[in-house]
Amino acid sequence: MTTYVHDFSDGDKDQKDLLGGKGANLAEMTNLGLPVPPGFTITTEACRAYLAAGHEPDGLADEVSAHLATLEAAMGRRLGDPADPLLVSVRSGAKFSMPGMMETVLNIGLNDESVVGLAAQSDDERFATDSYRRLLQMFGSTVLGIESEVFAEAHDALKKERGTVEDLDLGVDDLRALVATYKKAILEHAGREFPQDPREQMDLAVRAVFDSWNTDRAVLYRRQEQIPEDLGTAVNIQAMVFGNRGMSSGSGVCFTRDPASGAQGVYGDYLQNAQGEDVVAGIRNTVSLADLADLDRTSHDELLAIMATLEKHYRDMCDIEFTIERGKLWMLQTRVGKRTPEAAFRIAVHMVDEGLIDLDEALRRVSGAQLAQLMFPRFDPGAERTLLATGMNASPGAAVGKAVFDWGTAVEWAERGEDVILVRKETSPDDLHGMVVAKGILTSRGGKTSHAAVVARGMGRTCVCGAEALDVDTKEGRFTVRGGKTVHEGDLISIDGSTGEIFDGAVPVVDSHVVRYFEGDDVDDPVVSAVTRLVEHADSTRRLRVRTNADTAPDAARARRFGAQGIGLCRTEHMFLGDRRQLVEDLIVADDDAGQEAALQALLPLQRADFTEILEAMDGLPVTIRLIDPPLHEFLPDLTELSVAMAVADVRGHRKKRQRKLLEAVTRLHEQNPMLGLRGVRLGIVIPGLFTMQARAILEATAARVRAGGAPQPEIMIPLVASVRELDLVRHRIADVARDVAEETGIDLAFKVGTMIELPRAALTAGQIAGSAEFFSFGTNDLTQMTWGFSRDDVEASFFGTYLEQGVFPVSPFESLDTEGVGSLVRTAVRLGREARPDLHLGVCGEHGGDPASIHFFDEVGLDYVSCSPFRVPVARLEAGRSAVR
Amino acid sequence: MTTYVHDFSDGDKDQKDLLGGKGANLAEMTNLGLPVPPGFTITTEACRAYLAAGHEPDGLADEVSAHLATLEAAMGRRLGDPADPLLVSVRSGAKFSMPGMMETVLNIGLNDESVVGLAAQSDDERFATDSYRRLLQMFGSTVLGIESEVFAEAHDALKKERGTVEDLDLGVDDLRALVATYKKAILEHAGREFPQDPREQMDLAVRAVFDSWNTDRAVLYRRQEQIPEDLGTAVNIQAMVFGNRGMSSGSGVCFTRDPASGAQGVYGDYLQNAQGEDVVAGIRNTVSLADLADLDRTSHDELLAIMATLEKHYRDMCDIEFTIERGKLWMLQTRVGKRTPEAAFRIAVHMVDEGLIDLDEALRRVSGAQLAQLMFPRFDPGAERTLLATGMNASPGAAVGKAVFDWGTAVEWAERGEDVILVRKETSPDDLHGMVVAKGILTSRGGKTSHAAVVARGMGRTCVCGAEALDVDTKEGRFTVRGGKTVHEGDLISIDGSTGEIFDGAVPVVDSHVVRYFEGDDVDDPVVSAVTRLVEHADSTRRLRVRTNADTAPDAARARRFGAQGIGLCRTEHMFLGDRRQLVEDLIVADDDAGQEAALQALLPLQRADFTEILEAMDGLPVTIRLIDPPLHEFLPDLTELSVAMAVADVRGHRKKRQRKLLEAVTRLHEQNPMLGLRGVRLGIVIPGLFTMQARAILEATAARVRAGGAPQPEIMIPLVASVRELDLVRHRIADVARDVAEETGIDLAFKVGTMIELPRAALTAGQIAGSAEFFSFGTNDLTQMTWGFSRDDVEASFFGTYLEQGVFPVSPFESLDTEGVGSLVRTAVRLGREARPDLHLGVCGEHGGDPASIHFFDEVGLDYVSCSPFRVPVARLEAGRSAVR
Q1: Which of A604, A630, B279, B618 is deepest in the core (most CB within 10 A)?
Q2: Which residue spans within A779-860 are E strands per DSSP?
Q3: A-chain residues within 8 Å CB-CB of B813?
Q4: Beta partners for A89?
Q5: Residues of A forming the annotated binding site for substrate?
Q6: Strand positions, DSSP E, A466-534
Q7: CA of B650, closest CA in chain A: separation in Å?
Q8: Which of A667, A722, A790 minimises the CB distance to B789?
Q9: What integer pLDDT is reported at residue B709 of this predicted model?
Q10: How many CB atoms lie within 10 A of CB A777?
Q11: Residue ranges of the PEP-utilising enzyme mobile domain (chains A, B) (predicted)?
Q12: From A649, which residue of chain B is nearest by alpha-carbon distance?
């Protein structure tokens, strides 16, 4: 028969699946002999059985009775005994901590009779009555589902009547009156009396914990965090101890190291004559652990000894909740503590030096996401700042600019060179232009899946959203902080996308120390030392190589400083912009082959110079150059804009011959769905001269580099191949060019030809394609677009918010690879490709190459390298190492 | 050791792989004891060895010598013997007949000496000299690669000099002069003398046949017809017999049945005193087989006996070439004869009745493509017509209209209700508008893979292309038939896309008898009887069911008459056009929920009426209704056009409030890639009211039909699902609606909910999706778009021509399913889907559902049904039957 209830002494910290996080750690501490108030845990299995059946499983009630009897015997009191009641807390505890679930009901066991007994036993009638008041309030709101405002308002009304704002100013009679008011409120709002039977109180609280697994908020949270739906929660029932029994009592929270800086040494807050909830609520000022030593040296010393024990035992920084009841220390909770990115790196490295863990374990304890946080510019920690409000940290970074309230103004001001922050109640697709030009985006509504948040993350723009304290008036061009300052259009503000903070004026921004270090600056910062130590350890363990996406020599050089082992994607289309746009226009509007050839000849030396510089910057390392990919009309003006301009010119009787010719070309090349049109290898087949010119430029650059004594390693990559025949057509032309260049230069040219795998068909026929390709590079952006059938440009704005909210995906598949759908194509292509050509070289150059979760996937399926933007290179190095020690 | 040469007596008709079609059939006839001039075949294997090595394989020459010796012994003459020469023909013969390859060189063995011997032996100096002249001409052009015009011009010049146009008017001296002229021409153009050595003549001819395997035209043809590159061709060397040795000689071609009408009874042409090439060239008028009886009763009777033998032996209609040399009948070739679609059906059924074959075999001998041909309207066979010229039959159908020469005029005239034929030298994407509105398209340049041909087939428009006899002058708006009539803009012309013929004036068009029969007309036509008999047999053998794509009750009713077993795709977006467009506009531009709800409420009764009618028309059969799929902006005006109109209005100072609001909506909904945007299930999730309204309309219609005593079988289909979660969100809402409607009507509603599989991700995660779908319908149009990453709208015009020419695919993947790429996703989805839900119902509703080749694939992978347009239903029934007897 299944056992649904375990005593704290009957479990350990590794049983989080069964006992939840809180329960497992209480069991661990109990077994370490630490002073934990006794109790027991109802398992997640019981919860699952309850949720499946719709009622408590058979046998649960009896098991609870048995464990309760043991607890009563241990404490020498009976639950709700009118003379000397045992009181218990009922707390939820899932495997993963989860907002939206019911958390705690304290003081279970009090009723109209036992409150008298508690008063007598404690010799403190006020304490007993206040405890009863707290039970009614918690039970009413969390178990019976009454709005907590109902109780808060009654409490506030009473304090107002007494002319005070302090809870402690209320006397016994006041509290007794409040108890009566609360009981009336419960009857009115829940349609039932507050249950006087202590066991019924407990059973209802347990059931409420079970039910809270399925609140909307909990479901949404699980969906977003990819926590399985079917885990269920455990429930912990524990004898109450009281930190609010006078000045020799109190409650505290402490950490075995500083969770903010990572500095060695304990860190904590203590509040005299208070329960845990009061510490968290911040009603009164807490004191430090050092001050506790002055107040209660014995408890202090015992606590520090316990902290040392726990850290040594857990081999990690611990977060601890404790209560002192009349000079007796009790441990209420511990867990591995949350920490800032800075602290994560420093603590991990300190613990290696202290011999607690090895470097592999240290690597497991930090993450690429944390490192990425450390690489954003941030507000100067030493600078003064005025916090206006705090919203949600929707997209990281530190942005400073003038507040503007509509996209038109944003564009206008940005065009004249001003930094702007776009402030809206919420954004819509109409705001897109403004979001593109703004340094940051600030909204007063919407969560992390709102339009603003999704789009900002997509474009890497700093964003704070859902700052509800702001009253935004876009018509008047201002926002007012609730009960505070008004900011007008043009006023400077600063927003921190990593913390959600909004500051008045311009807070100075400083570059990341980590970035400065990689850039070669001499930086003396313990965080930087910790980061570099772990990144270097990652380098020594990882199988996966890390390349970069870079289109220019300066980018390539920077990426090399960041540790890139070559270029995985050098896009050539950016080289066709700027001054050269005219040549590309000439190429496109050319009436005949001669005109086209002339334009190509003019582009050739420019491209050769581009490639020579890039090969030089990456000398000795592979450089994968993708031949031109986007549709040609991307180099021409927009059809609608040009049509409007020409129509207006017509009406006004102006003549614009060149523009007219341009409009003809734009109309001819216009496509309903350019993403699905004439681009990539298709261009290379329809206009062979384009690819041939680029191949020649690459190979002439290679020859020039060889002549200069370099070691160029060019890899020519053909985009958008769907069928091996396409690749063959281009490959043969490249071979012809190579023969010509080798003859002309007399230099033996070493180079590779390969292809992108970015269309589902390429993945599905990868065996054939591998016969003609020396390498594959997965273009996971396009592969995601085609596999899901949506284009990033179009859909992030229009429905990704809804999709994230509704749980279609927990994170945009453009941020983190969809391993189920897109990933299965990657697996297929790897398998077929390697079967056909065992030495096939495999990499990825989509943006997923810099995404931590995706990097682990790419390592697992056996790619040889990932490629990502220069700034992401250290992140990828770290994650590739973490994947290796997984 | 490999044997490269086989005597005719050493082979049979099933050895086409080794001996080629011609060689295998010559062997078969030889072994049947028919009078075949003796000879031998050099195998395809020899050709492959030659092509691989670049020279004749070892041993080939010796084998040829040995077989030649046998042949010489049998004939009692030696090759090129000056006194009494053996002459041979050298003919290519691949497994599949293939234009573009060298075909025949006759009279090998003649030279300056043996021509004298031949003259003496035949006692006919003119015959001998003419035979030598023919050898020089054929050898010069086909073996030595000299333009055939060189010889034709010399021949014509001589006849002109002699004041005649008849070959027979040239005397011996003239022919001797022509021999001298030809020899000079060979020296001049080929840079070598005509080889006098008979064996060298033969070896060069054999080599020329081998080499002709790789001419551009042959390669292109193979690519287009999907004939493997590596088959190679055989070469047949056969003793010459002469039909040109006086009036008791002659040559003929005959068929064992009429290949045009399929009528029983022999059919053929005979030409006295002529060689086979003269019959084909049509220089003089041939006579019928009946006339042959009068000319040479013995040969006639022998021929008829042989024809009967062959037909009985081959169990099919045979196409025969024969020669009579001085009263002796010789069989030169036979093969299963090509036939018109009409003949194919009639012959197959006749042979069943004659006990030659069974119905399964009859079914194998006809095709859906042939049936489709019979279902096009065609020109009244009895009507008079004036043929102007013949081009290529690029896209079938019969079209009549006024000739127009630019797309602007096409659009203008079509808008005022005129039928037009767009005539161009060749078309470009600019002509697209004109092609859309034209009844037919006619070009003077380009083949079946030209832009005009590809686009016309894609849109089902009649097209004749590459009519080289037309001199098209688009500027002047006219075309002139070479040496003939001039047609001006506005003149009526008729084009037959099935034959390539271009007629002057309006040829009356008649409906297909087959279509009229299915429509219920009383048609007395032997072709129709044959068709229905085979379609009915197909029905009795096929596993695959055939449904139709129909959006209206009349279409549904028609499809039912055509044999549809339900609706596989009822699109609902067409129901939102016309009068209802205004309501849809209201829905889209609605400022608030109330406005949206009002528009939906107005649409509900209209949709309900739509569905009631369709369910009634298909009563008792399943009706799959797809909820709205396209992006909303498809119901709004074009962004560019509207922008231009508004800009012009602005300049002119006009105010257009509603239009301005519309422009706002159009701009808001504008997408870069609408195909990859907010459509399908995404719309249903973002605007839930839309799908809910449609589901309610379907279920209310179902209830109404049940109340009326009907047996409705609605199936609700969700488009564009990529993830099971999307399907679940919509499915639960539909379930809610169903509960409501069931309660409101008191009727127990039976219906299914399923999804399209049209995105790669849906196919890849079909196992999960099947958990929530009762049926899958493969949307192979979209699946093709996403798998290849190109959209049909954009690419057929821009690069499909090039892709077909370059052999990236042999046929557009939108016409015939790409079984390798797209097909592998279909296989995966079928496997995963059926594993998860064994009773999952599977169908296809893309246009591939009506394509013969694709139907076989769908049968093979185990789909339950295909769905296609009403007119394609009989084709699909036939092909499904053919697949079953495969």
Answers
A1: B618
A2: 841-844
A3: none
A4: A238
A5: 571, 626, 758, 779-782
A6: 470-473, 478-481, 486-488, 492-496, 501-504, 509-510
A7: 9
A8: A722
A9: 96
A10: 29
A11: 418-500
A12: B648
Beta-carbon separation of B675 and A677 below 8 A? no
Q: Are A101 and A209 in contact (CB under 8 A)?
A: yes
Q: What angle do CA A604, A605, A611 make, to 5 degrees?
A: 90
Å between B605 CA and nearest CA of chain A: 29
| pLDDT mean for each 10 residues of chain B (886 residues) | 92 94 96 97 96 94 97 94 95 86 88 95 92 94 90 91 84 94 96 96 96 86 79 96 91 92 91 82 78 95 97 96 95 92 96 97 96 91 92 90 94 93 86 88 83 78 91 92 92 94 95 93 94 98 97 94 97 83 82 86 95 98 95 80 82 75 79 89 92 97 97 98 96 96 95 98 98 97 96 77 84 93 98 98 93 96 96 96 95
Of B429, B685, B787, the CB nearest to A761: B787
* pTM confidence score: 0.88
Identify the DSSP state of A337: P
Spatial contact of A497 and A464, defined as CB atoms under 8 Å apart: yes
Instruction: Reduce the secondary structure of A67-96 to three states and give it as a string.
Output: HHHHHHHHHCCEECCCCCEECEEEEEEECC
Write the CA distances from B210 to B139, B232, B245, B667, B765, integer angstroms: 15, 8, 32, 63, 51
* CB spacing of B761 vs A668 below 8 angstroms: no
Q: In what order do the strands lie in the sheet with A478-481?
A: A470-473, A478-481, A486-488
In SS3 terms, B773-841 reads as: CCEEEECHHHHHHHHHCCCHHHHHHHCHHHHHHCCCCCCCCCCCCCCCCHHHHHHHHHHHHHHHCCCCE
What does the pLDDT look like over A230-268, one tens digit per residue?
899 999 999 999 998 889 999 999 999 998 889 999 988
Q: Is A451 a catalytic residue?
A: yes
Which of A682, A757, A785, A802 to mutate to probe the B interface, most B CBs <10 Å?
A682
User: At which residue do the structure tokens 């829905």 appear?
Assistant: B587
Closest-CA residue of chain B to A674: B673
Work out the number of other CB atoms within 10 angstroms of the CB of residue A161: 11
Structure tokens at A96: 């993963």
pLDDT range class, residue A282, cuts 50, 70, 90 = low
Beta strands per DSSP E along B370-475: 378-379, 386-390, 392-395, 398-404, 420-424, 440-443, 462-465, 470-473
Q: Do A806 and B685 touch (CB under 8 A)?
A: yes
DSSP code at position B195: P
> Cα angle vertex B411, ends B410, B412, to 5°?
95
Q: Tell me the CA distances in angstroms from A15 to A6, A22, A23, A95, A354, one per residue in order.
A: 11, 10, 9, 9, 28
Characterize the bridge pairing of strands A509-510 and A501-504. unpaired
Is residue B756 within 8 A of residue B833, CB to CB? The reply is no
**Catalytically annotated residue among A318, A463, A845, A868:** A845
Tokens of A355: 């011999």
Decide which of A847 and B33 is more confident: B33
* Residue with more model confidence, A434 or A460: A434
The pairing of beta strand B233-239 with beta strand B88-94? antiparallel
Per-residue pLDDT, B303: 97
Residues of A in contact with B677 (CB under 8 A): 790-791, 794-795, 798
pLDDT of residue B281: 65
Across the A:B interface, residue pairs with CB atoms under 8 Å apart total 204
What are the catalytic residues of B?
451, 845
Q: How many CA within 13 A on the CB side of residue B279? A: 24
Rounded CA gap, A431 and B825, in Å? 39
Question: What ipTM, to 2 d.p.?
Answer: 0.87
Return the residue of B nearest to A723 by Cα: B808
Alpha-carbon span A877 to B9, nearest angstrom: 74
Q: Do B723 and A643 touch (CB under 8 A)?
A: no
- Does A537 participate in catalysis according to the annotation? no
Q: Which two tokens stand for residue B105?
A: 């060189």
